[in-house]
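Record filed below.
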Amino acid sequence: MGAASGDQDSREFLARIRIGDLCNGTVAEVTRSQGVTVILDGFSARPLGTIWPLDVSWSWNPPAVVKVGQRITAEVIAIHLDEGHARLAMTATENPELWAFLNSRHRGEILSGTITAIERFGVFVALDDGPEHPVFPGVGFITIPELSWRHIEAVSDVVQVGQRVSCEFLQFDTWNGEARLSLKATQPDPFQAFADSVAVGQTLQGQVTKVVPFGVFVQVADGFEGLVHLQELTSTPVATPQDVVEVGDDVTVVVTDVDRERRRLTLSRRQVSPDSR
């Protein structure tokens, strides 16, 4: 009964906390790998607050920042009622201006800035109205998939360091303390225009660009590919796509589905009428 009662008390306590609240407490344990546990004010039975190492400080070295018995203030960034703890971040109170700026942003908001660095995993952006980041070369960050609607070989094909950009705000990344942005969201989706120009049942000419175990991809227009499933390659069953076509082959296909939401085009070679071949 005692354990069950304690679990219920902790859930009730945590249920009163909201994400974004600032909580005070006392550090109960500090480890370099697991981070910090905190006894929150108002619930002394056991530590209910946890701070992951990267959420302790931008120094990324918890033992050098906090000690057992130290009083701290941290922001609630997640609440896990079933697990009985609240995840906290001291980085929020360490950089109040940064956190206040990011917390005030709204999804869909357009933010402008300058490209400051290009990495293999994305692009950093110094936002016009944003504070400096304590670690990264910009508060804004654009992942590779959010740079362009089209497949790109190199980031430099889309943006350059020093370039001015306007991006859509996607979310506040509390792990890195940055604004996740999308450049492509501010641009028309070319697939929608392409979808307007084709219809189910339409015959198209294309070239095989990739062969996979379950079918082949065929480029039917500049930048647009569709999938021909293995069973749609020929009227006679085959074991592998290579039994029928190879990369570089010119083929005639029929549009069988246009999925605007997932931006996918499905094709069939089997359904092409004899007159169209």
